[in-house]
Amino acid sequence: MFVKHAAEVTVVGAGPVGLMLAAELALAGADVQVLERRTEPDLDAKAQSINVPTAEALDRRGLLPAATDLDQRFTGHFAGLPLDADLVDWADAELVAHTAADRCRTMTQSRLEALLAEHLDRLGVPVHRGVDVVAVDDTATGVRVGTSAGPMHTTWLVGCDGGHSTVRRLSGIEFPGTAAEFVGYQTIAEVADPEKLGTGWVWSERGAYRCGPQPGRVATLEFDSVRARSARDDRATPVTLDEVQASLRRVSATDVTVTALRAAPTRWTDNTRQAASYRRGHVLLAGDAAHVHPPFGGQGLNLGIGDAVNLGWKLGAVATGRASDDLLDTYDAERRPVGAWVLDWTRAQTGLMRGDPSSAALRVVVADLLGTSAGATYAVKKISGVTQRVGPVGDHDVVGTLVPDLWLRDGSRLVDHGHGGGFLLLDRTVDGAFARLAAPWGDVVTTVVDDEDAPLVGALVRPDGVIAWAADTVDAPGLDDALRRWAGAR
C-alpha cells in the first residue's frame, strides 16, 4: 500500500465529512491525501436525509443536479413526533430565501458518500484504503504519523474518523459530555408478520420503535443504561439479525419475526459529547470526531458537512501560504456553537422519548405545539438549518448568514459562479466600484457583476457560503477590511 509520505494535509477518514473536506482543500490548492481504515465504502444504514446547508454546499460545487431525482420535501420529526408539511408556512422569509429548502431531501448517507467520492476522484485526490493510524506526534513543523502502511510526515492532520476517533485519542484531546441512556438499532429488514407492529414511532415502557417511512426501514431504541454502555464500547462488533429481532421484540412487546436484513444494521446510543478543542497544534477534528450525539433527524451528517466546508477553505489558505494559521482559530469559534446547539437539540429529544409517565405527558404537550403552524414552521426551520448563523460580524444584518439563492439578470444564479471554490463578490454598482477595490484579490475572489435593481448592492461570500460583507448602498464601507480579514493581506 502506497501512502504519500510528505502530504501538506492528511485527512483521516473517507466518510462523507472526510471526502467533502478533502475536496474543499483540493479546490483551495492544497496538497491533500485521505487515509481510511476500511477497505470498502461503508454501506451501513445511517443518515437518511440532507438539510439545506448541505444541499447548498453541494449546489455551490455543481453537485446537486446529480440528486435531482430525490425531490421529496423533507420535514423530519422531533423526538418521533411527525411534522406535518401542510402546517409549515413555506412563505416564511428564511425558508423562501433558501430555495434549497425544497431540496432538503431523503438522500441516504451511502449515496452522498458515493457522490463525493466521484467528485474527489475528478479532483485527483488519492484515497488510501486499508490504512490504520497508530501513532500521532505533533511537532514544530507538522505531524509525524504512524500508520499500518509505514510512518509518514504531514504538515496538517485532520481527524474525520468518527466518534471513536483514533486521531482525537492519540492527540490527547478530551471529549466531555453526557453518558448514554439508551441503545438503538437501525436497518432495512424483511418482517414476516408486519401486522403485529404499528407505523411511525410507537412508544412503550422499554423504549420505542419505528417502521418506515422507507419500505422495510426498522429502528428501535431501548432505555437501558447497561445495554447502552455495552453498545458504546462494542461498536466494532457486527450487529446480527438476532440482535435486531430481540430488540424489536422487547420494545414492541410482540413475538414479531425478522426474516432477513437487506442493509447492514447499525447500533447507536445517545452518548453525547463535544471535543474540548477542535484544534490542537497541527491536528484538527471534524464531524463525529469532534462531536457525537444520537442521530435524530440526520443532524450528525449535516453537522459534519458544515464542519468540512467551514474548515476546508481556511486550512487550504493556510496550507498554501495565503493566510496565517490564526485563520484556523475561527474554525472552532464558528463551528463549536453550532455543534453545541445540535447536541442540546438531540438531548431534548432524548428527554421526550423515555418511557416514563412524565415524558409521555410531555410528548402530548409538545405534539400539540408542533401541531400548530407556528410550531411546525419553527421546528422545520431549525431542522432544515436555514436559521444557522456563524461568527462574522458586520454592519449589515445578513453578515454571518448563508447566502440566499440569488438569481441574476443574465438568468444565472450567484452560486453557479462558485463551482471552483473561492470567494464570490456580487457587484451591483453602476461603475464597478466594488470590483475595482477587490482587484488585488483576483486570484481568490470571483467578481460577479449584475445590474439588477435590488436592495443588496454588494456582497462578499466566503467559499463556505457565509456572507462576510454586504451593502445596500454604493458607498458602504467595510469591503476592504472583510477582504483582508478573510482572503488575506495584499
Note the topology.
Elements (H helix, E strand, L loop, with lengths): L8 E4 L3 H12 L4 E5 L15 H9 L16 E2 L2 E2 L10 H4 L12 H14 L4 E3 L3 E7 L2 E6 L2 E5 L1 E4 L6 H5 L6 E2 L3 E10 L8 E5 L2 E5 L5 E7 L1 H9 L7 H12 L5 E4 L4 E4 L2 E3 L4 E2 L2 E3 L5 E2 L6 H21 L9 H25 L3 H14 L2 H12 L38 E5 L5 H5 L7 E5 L8 E4 L5 E5 L7 H9 L3
Helix pairs in contact: 1-4, 1-8, 8-9
Question: Care to give the gist of this entry?
Answer:
The chain has three domains: about 10-45 and about 105-175 and about 270-355, FAD/NAD(P)-binding domain (3-Layer(bba) Sandwich), CATH 3.50.50; about 180-270, Alpha-Beta Plaits, CATH 3.30.70.2450; about 415-485, 3-Layer(aba) Sandwich (Glutaredoxin), CATH 3.40.30.120. The chain has 13 helices and 24 strands.
Q: Which spans have pLDDT < 50 for at least 5 consecutive residues?
A: none
The largest beta-sheet arranges its strands as 5-2-1-9-19-18
Class from secondary-structure proportions: alpha+beta
The overall strand count is 24
Terminus-to-terminus distance: 42 Å
* Tertiary shape: globular
Per CATH, the superfamily of the largest domain is FAD/NAD(P)-binding domain
| Mean pLDDT, all residues | 90
Helix content: 25-40%
* CATH fold description of the largest domain: FAD/NAD(P)-binding domain
What is the CA-based Rg, rounded?
Answer: 23 Å
How much strand content do the residues show?
15-25%
Q: Into how many domains do the coordinates divide?
A: 3
Main beta sheet strand tally, sense and closure? 6 strands, mixed
| Count of helix runs | 13
CATH class of the largest domain: Alpha Beta
Q: What CATH architecture of the largest domain would you give?
A: 3-Layer(bba) Sandwich
Which oligomeric state applies? single chain
